[in-house]
Amino acid sequence: MASHGLARNRDQLRAFVFVCRDKTMNRRSFSLLRSIVLFAAVTASGLASGPVNAGVEDVLREIAPNGRAQVLVRMKADGGGGAPWTPRLSTSRQRVAVATAFNAAAPALRRARIAELRHFRTIPYIAANVTREQAMALAGEDTVEGIFLIRRERRADATQRESAQAVGLSAAQLSIDLGSAWDRGFDGTGYAIAVIDSGINFTHPALAGKNVGDACFANTFGTTTVAQCPSGATPQIGTGAASFCPGDSTRCDHGTHVASIAVGNDSAVFGTPTFGVAKGAKIVPIDVFSLVTDPAECSPDPAPCVLTDSLAVLNALDYVNEKAIELKIAAVNLSIGGSSRDGYCDDDPRRSVIDMLRQKGVAVAVAASNGGQTGKISTPACISSAVGVGAVDNGTTVASFSNFANTLDFVAPGVSLMGAKGSGSGYGTRSGTSMSSPQVAGAFAVLRQAYPTLSLDAIQAALKQTGTPVTRADSGITVAKIQVGAALDRLQGVNRRFVNNVFAGVSAQGESMLRFYNPSEATGNVRIAVRDGDTGAYLGDWTSPPIPSRAALQFTAKSVLANATRNGFPVPPELRAYLNLEVASSFKGSTQHVLYSEQAHVVSNLTSCGATPSTDTAKQLMNVHSGVFAEFPSRLRIVNTGVASAKAKLSFYNASTGAKVFEWTTPEIASAATHEASVPSIEARVTIPAGTMDGGNGYYNVTVEGFSGYLQHLVENIGPGVLVDMTAKCDVIVSALPQIAP
Hints:
Layout: H1 2-22, H2 27-45, H3 51-66, E1 68-75, H4 91-111, E2 117-119, E3 125-131, H5 132-139, E4 144-149, E5 152-155, E6 159-163, H6 171-175, H7 179-183, E7 192-197, E8 215-216, E9 225-227, E10 236-237, H8 253-263, H9 267-270, E11 282-287, E12 290-292, H10 295-298, E13 305-309, H11 310-323, E14 329-334, E15 336-337, E16 340-341, H12 351-359, E17 363-367, E18 377-378, E19 387-392, E20 410-413, E21 417-420, E22 427-431, H13 433-450, H14 456-466, E23 468-471, E24 478-481, H15 484-492, E25 497-503, E26 511-518, E27 526-532, E28 538-543, E29 551-556, H16 557-563, E30 565-566, E31 569-570, E32 578-585, E33 589-597, E34 602-605, E35 620-625, E36 634-640, E37 649-654, E38 660-665, E39 674-678, H17 679-685, E40 699-704, E41 709-717, E42 722-725, E43 730-732
Helix pairs in contact: 1-2, 2-5, 3-5, 8-13, 11-12, 14-15
């Protein structure tokens, strides 16, 4: 009932405004009336009907006890006859659109008696210190689209301790598969990472000479919040602007530690890269932290403390947007967090500039913060276009302090990370999502060096598709832990899985059959990009039916081609001798290419894996013939490579359904010896429960566990008297096919 009443009141208020506008009220009177209407709607209902009203409600709550509030005002930037502002505009055209919007809003600002402003060059915002009446006056202006509180934010680290010098790849870096990217010459050289933080100690050997484009955008609010830019004025741009590091303070400890994790390189002193995922990259250091003396503002930390705010961060991001191309900025690191949010927080004004940076290929990596919450992460990590980062240990356990939610993009190590100290040349360890996000920022710089023109979406997708799945217990949430080398493999095509030279139809040599084995615990499927074997030209896509857990299904190549589609249409029938099939999968499993020659009455294995043979050949066999294939009986050879004699227990599964059929244990096999048995002879020695092979295709999948040795699968073609090794198979990995143009 309350919501119906509110809607009715709003309709009446809108009608009243319309009538008044229709009677050609002067602009000032209409704006005043609109302010009164908005004030009535907000105060009467306590709810918001749109973005401006929602902002006004937040501002009014803040102003009530204090009398004034620091706000960001979004101006209407419709272009005024020119190009409207969007994140996709070039920087020069954004400046024009913002200047136009500012000129249009200037009379409204004068009417509201707002004198102290900070406005931006590439995003349509101004900052102001407003009273309750001024906020309401702004809300009544047509040139204003939103009003947002400037909120306090703090650094996102948890703990710290002293530590000795570390040399070479750390355990954390090894766990994100960094070494193989470095081995290929990709370490971020030629690019920079903007580190928006507190001051950075560039006298440290890990960071010496790495700074470019220094800036300070810390704010001064009244007498209790004072910017600490070295010149004493804010903003400050130029060498040293982000290096205010008093020798008797810890002010630069956090920023220096974070920067060294992203790009540090101590090789000038020790001859070995010591720190930094992107050890060859530069730093664009930006200081956004102010000294705060108000105990209420610092709580739960003691006063004085260092804090930042959403305005300072917005200023810094705006500066990065203008400098991104000039300084070759590949990524931004924000180890900063505000309040926690459930879901995305795309009402945050910083989304505008983060969207712009994405258009330029710049990733904004943001720490999720350290509240230990599940289902929530902090601002601005929760902005959908940002890259939110949580923390794990060097394995796959989510750190207890890390926020963790579906809105996270990645996790990276954040427990006891080594980094440079804010004074002198020492090192220490810290824990927190602050330590995780610079590794992700560094990963983007490494991959950007490898692919300078690739879209950010493509690079981010490669990191997600190749990341190690990480789940917090009982959360039901899974997030990818970055694997830099694997992502590079994917972008370079190393992980493309092909089944090559498949007969397109039935030929004189026989008919190609494709087998896909799913050893995982869940049902999955494979998707194939069908290509012409001679030219590599893309023909269409085919997706398998569901393949149950522990099952292996078989398809003829002829049926794959016949059921493949391109843009929803069947692949045109053309004469093709061979196909190459690019395989993607929802599970980690195996595939085989088998040729059946009806004329010769022979089954043979044509599987060829190139550089990626199966890693589980020794322990798993797929599509082993049961006794129903009397003319093609399978034989199993079990080789004991252990130092002592042992028995091997084999498990047999219905290859069509994945259901377990029976187990069989070999006799004692001496060390270095082999035991061979035909499948019909094994079936004769065991009890096969009724119905376990019903609905099947007559094949088994066979596994052996807890045995030092391996299996071999042979098929006897009784007609011609040919023995064929059917063991070979190729891995398929959890992956997606690359995007293919129509």
